[in-house]
Design goal:
Layout lengths: L13 E5 L2 H4 L11 H6 L17 H15 L3 E5 L2 H4 L8 H16 L3 E7 L5 H4 L8 H17 L5 E6 L1 H9 L11 H22 L7 E12 L4 H24 L4 H7 L11 H4 L5 E14 L8 E4 L15 H15 L4 E5 L16 H19 L4 E7 L18 E3 L6 E3 L1 H10 L3 H4 L2
Parallel strand pairs: 1-2, 1-9, 2-3, 3-4, 4-5, 5-6, 6-8, 8-9
Antiparallel strand pairs: 6-7, 10-11
Helix pairs in contact: 3-5, 7-9, 8-9, 13-14, 14-15
The structure holds 5-hydroxymethyl-3,4-dihydroxypiperidine.
Amino acid sequence: MTRLSRFDFPEGFLFGAATAAYQIEGTSFGTCGPSHWDSFAATPGNVVRAEDGSTACDHYHRWPEDLDLMAAAGFDAYRFSTSWPRVMPDGVTVNPEGMDFYDRLVDGMLERGLRPFQTLYHWDLPSALADRGGWANRDTCHRFADYAEAITRRLGDRVASIATINEPWCVAWLSHFLGAHAPGLRDIRAAARAMHHILLAHGLGLERLRGITKAPLGIVLNFDHATPASDAPEDLAAAARQDAIFNRWFIEAITRQAYPAEAMLGLAPHLPEGWQEDMATIGQPLDWLGVNYYTRHLHAAAPEAPWPSTREVPGPLPKTQMGWEIYPEGLKGFLLRLSRDYTGDLPLYVTENGMANADTVEDNAVTDAIREDFLFAHLAATREAIAAGANVRGFFYWSLLDNYEWAEGYDKRFGLVHVDFASLKRTPKSSYHALARAIARNDREADR
Ligand code: IFM
């Protein structure tokens, strides 16, 4: 496979890696408040071995080493998230220790020439707000705007970019309808409310931040190619329903101030009263859009099941440790579809793309050739999308480090850098070195 380099991308294209607070920091350090992920993980059956984020990668103490790894690889930017319960342990009251931590972290990035790409909400909802109904409760949207304002008043003069929410589909559907993530509900009414409220939180957050920071503001959506399991009309319709729920709901609300009819068929009866009046807030202009892409799924009709009456069918392609099919064409497809149908010239960033693999350390090294192939195939897909007209400005690999993979605990390794969760030792994998060579600005750097 051809291995692209920095010079195959437009001038100024940013290469980075991404992480999220709960997955790496260690919530037992630095007076971080409890979040719904702590209680979800403590409930038997939710998370592999009931693992949680209390230690994670101990990035709270080891961040200088982690940022050094980013800088040594030649990355331009680091996508991280700030933890709401660290900044406001009870969801509303500012914790100076939490603020100071992010202050040091952002300064640490700038000292190393890394542009800070901040995400405000990457799933760690303070327990105090979860207790009051979490994302099913409209009030949480206003509390989010307060948190967004407080942290931005502290960091907004230095961060290069702010995303309000990471992957609203996961926050809402995966967590309130499929029950796979905190709070683990399987309730269509709560799901419909969360589908709307998470977008309202985004809109209220944007409103608050305009004027207090010059950082470009956006949101990070995830997309999963909905492939019909067959050419049968019922399967085509099933895939279209899944596409509407997963891939169209959020982007259409943001860019068209409307929800797709195929999804409204099941969700409209459960939306909060007066939802229409929020659509202008939700659809405020963005400065950029983040695109997270991993895989595709095959969908078939399941007429015996309640709406959306679909089931997943295993696909034939090679799979990652997550069991996700490797399908780089989907990334190119989404970048072009988004540009064509929704975003036009708005800057797009691939804010997450990566794979889990059962990596092991041998002789102090990790060879993950399969991840190298995955990475370069998705970089090639990104470049093809750019050549076909998509305005893509950067690519962030998920993740810098092996980390807490939510309901999968620490089993699934997505990192460019291996983490031994007993000793917390970091070992850069061959994919880290391959990417560092690809993005080196000159030969001397490449030889490092
Ligand atoms: O680990 C997650 C991340 O938190 C959000 N996007 C997908 C990743 C892999 O599942």
